[in-house]
Design a protein that fits this description.
The chain has one domain. The protein is built from 4 helices and 5 strands, in the order βββαααββα. By secondary structure, the chain is an alpha+beta fold. A hairpin with a 2-residue loop joins β4 and β5. The strands form 2 sheets. It has a 3-stranded mixed sheet with strand order 1-3-2, with helices on one face. It has a two-stranded antiparallel ribbon with strand order 4-5. The structure holds zinc ion.
């Protein structure tokens, strides 16, 4: 089965096996659309904790893309669902390992800052 791209009204960008899910409004933001699509295409079909984590956090996205992402998501509260540590696809709930790692990193980072500042 080939790769399929589906457009939804809540997700920013996700990859599940042979399906890439992108927000429908991204069609109007070509640069961000293509950048996210490229990112999702680079994730392999099979989930691999090490490879996928390196792909997501091994390098910081260009600042212009981070700004575009925030600008895109801010007025679309449904896309904030993307930040939860779990997702729903075809009626099934699954853990979003990438987001679990994101919150873990944020927790460790902010915890370290608080420790340094106040203790
Ligand atoms: Zn990713």
């Amino acid at each position: 089965m080939g790769l399929e791209i589906v457009y939804s009204d809540w997700a920013l960008a996700n990859r599940y096996d042979d399906t890439i899910e992108l927000h429908k409004d991204l069609k109007k933001y070509k640069r961000l659309h293509d950048w996210l699509l490229k990112h999702e295409l680079e994730h392999e079909k099979e989930f691999n904790l090490v490879k996928d984590t390196i792909h997501d956090y091994g390098e910081i996205p260009p600042a212009s893309m981070l700004v575009s992402m925030v600008r895109f998501m801010a007025p679309r509260p449904k896309t904030w669902i993307q930040l939860l540590p779990f997702g729903i696809f075809k009626g099934e709930i699954y853990w979003d390992v990438s987001m679990i790692i994101f919150w873990l990193l944020l927790f460790i980072f902010s915890g370290t800052i608080i420790m340094i500042k106040f203790f």
